[in-house]
Specification:
By secondary structure, this protein is α/β, with parallel strands linked by helices. The protein contains 10 helices and 7 strands. The protein has 3 domains: about 1-45; about 50-170, no CATH class; about 170-289, no CATH class. A 5-stranded mixed sheet has the order 3-4-5-6-7, covered by helices on one side. It has a two-stranded parallel ribbon with strand order 1-2. α4 packs across α6. It comes from Bimuria novae-zelandiae CBS 107.79.
């Protein structure tokens, strides 16, 4: 039996295993034959990757001439125009996403080579958070100002934490969220600098980072009680002066160290002398249906 004679449900599983990248890296792989193309196109465009430049070309007409008068020695006007332009395009993209029946996962990542800066407006973040069809949103907020900005938000007083927490406060014990990873470390910005910082509270905090970490762990424990089927909930930080990445695993109450380059959900190595003593709790670890 040839490959294309297999049942459609089997072919779908095979093409899913091959993955989107295989076809995107060489588009000629989409054109083997008509039957192949049907499955290949579905797999190829299951993941859609777009940069700021391609998003601009996709959503608007040429803009170079209108941008030239903004060029100044400092480059600030150009950066401000680029940021505004990017967020306008993302708002348009958010409108399209809300009309999608199948899109479930959204990732917006900052290019690592670029300097950390405020590139996402709160109005943009709010637009994506209000897309009820999405089940997973990953936003690279490194450098992003999460406090309402008068010039950007027109004094609306919107706070991103309120929107993120809305499902939590509206649910008792049936929150479909099953994974949450929060990285408070900013060490990825300068891995060779031993004074690498952590995230700070939106407002003034008398207890500093230690109080923030304790508060985050407490809130994470409260959140676990609301989750129908928690799989992994972690708060990530780093230790000084080695910039060793550490993770507090809320489900086990233990701290673990993560090796360099490890994924945030890696098992890690338990820190025996820093085990958090927590009250016993029943945790369902099966994935929600």
């Amino acid at each position: 039996m040839s490959l294309l004679q297999l049942p459609p449900e089997t072919l779908i599983q095979i093409f899913d295993y091959v993955g989107s990248y295989y076809f995107r890296s060489d588009l000629s792989r989409l054109t083997v034959c008509k039957q192949w193309s049907k499955f290949a196109h579905t797999t190829c465009f299951r993941d859609f990757y777009v940069t700021q430049k391609t998003l601009r070309r996709l959503l608007s007409s040429p803009y170079v001439e209108s941008s030239l008068p903004l060029v100044k020695d400092s480059g600030r006007a150009v950066r401000a125009a680029w940021t505004t332009e990017l967020n306008n395009d993302l708002l348009y993209l958010a409108t399209i996403i809300k009309q999608s029946r199948k899109l479930r996962i959204l990732r917006i990542l900052r290019i690592q080579a670029t300097k950390r800066r405020d590139y996402l407006f709160l109005s943009t973040i709010r637009a994506f958070l209000s897309a009820s069809n999405l089940t997973s949103i990953k936003l690279d907020l490194c450098g992003t100002r999460l406090i309402p900005h008068q010039s950007q938000e027109h004094g609306e007083g919107f706070h991103v934490c309120t929107s993120i927490a809305a499902p939590y406060y509206a649910t008792t014990t049936n929150l479909r969220l099953n994974e949450m990873l929060i990285n408070l470390s900013l060490s990825n910005e300068s891995p060779l600098t031993t004074s690498a910082a952590h995230a700070t509270c939106c407002g003034s905090s008398p207890g500093g980072f230690l109080q923030l970490k304790a508060d985050m762990e407490k809130q994470a424990q409260d959140l676990v009680a609301q989750m129908a089927a928690p799989k992994i909930v972690r708060i990530l930080t780093h230790a000084l002066p080695s910039i060793e990445m550490r993770a507090f695993d809320v489900l086990t109450g233990r701290n673990v160290t993560l090796s360099e380059g490890a994924e945030w959900d890696d098992d890690g190595e338990a820190i025996e002398d820093e085990v958090h003593r927590r009250l016993p709790r029943a945790v369902v670890v099966a994935r929600a249906g």
